[in-house]
Amino acid sequence: MELSVVDEIVDVHKRKSWALISILQDIQKYDGYLSQEVLRRVSERMEIPLTRLYGMATFYKTLNLTPQGKHNITICSGTACHVRGSDRILKEIMNFLNVEPGGTTEDGEFTLSVVNCLGACAIGPIVVVDGKYNGKMNASKVKNLLVKCRRKA
Q: What is the pTM of this model?
């Protein structure tokens, strides 16, 4: 990412510390993650310790410190989804894509995340692909969903 873009985003937010999360989210829109170089630049421009930025980036799940895939897959492991088989769905995704939770496939197409709850228990188990909720999932449905996603790519 061009550091001039980082500078522009910081300037748009007038270097206000209360806008730090928005600044990081806006920067992340360009590459899908926050590189060390970008975080250093924000730290310098805003005169905020780098450790504070890393603390925020690791606390907020919407911020990423590693490159993300073109498609983001999130599976719920909350109680309602778990008792309905989300662990089997997770294993199917891991086997089909050859990726661990928190990882990105070697081809950069998919990033897999597991969360404790998505707040839609009535339609669990839930798999979210690129922001779209897919409820009442099972292992065969998720495989078809991933095949369709691969075709789009």
A: 0.77
The answer to whether 73 and 128 have CB atoms below 8 angstroms apart is yes
Can you tell me the distance from the alpha carbon of 115 to that of 100, in angstroms, rounded to the nearest whole number?
14
**133: domain range?**
71-152
The verdict on 99 and 142 lying in the same domain is: yes
Q: Is the bond preceding residue 101 a cis peptide, omega within 30 degrees?
A: no
Residue 150's pLDDT band (boundaries 50, 70, 90)? confident
- pLDDT tens string 32-50: 899 999 999 999 999 999 9
Q: Is the dihedral of CA 36, 38, 39, 43 positive or negative?
A: positive
Neighbours of 6 (CB within 10 A): 24
* Same domain? 46 vs 101: no
Provide, for the chain, the percentages of residues in helix, strand and coil under a 3-state DSSP scheme, each rounded to the nearest 5: 50, 10, 35
Q: How far apart are CA 58 and CA 62, in angstroms?
A: 9
As given in the structure block, the two tokens for residue 123 are: 């339609």
For residue 112, which of 147, 146, 83 has the smallest C-alpha distance?
146
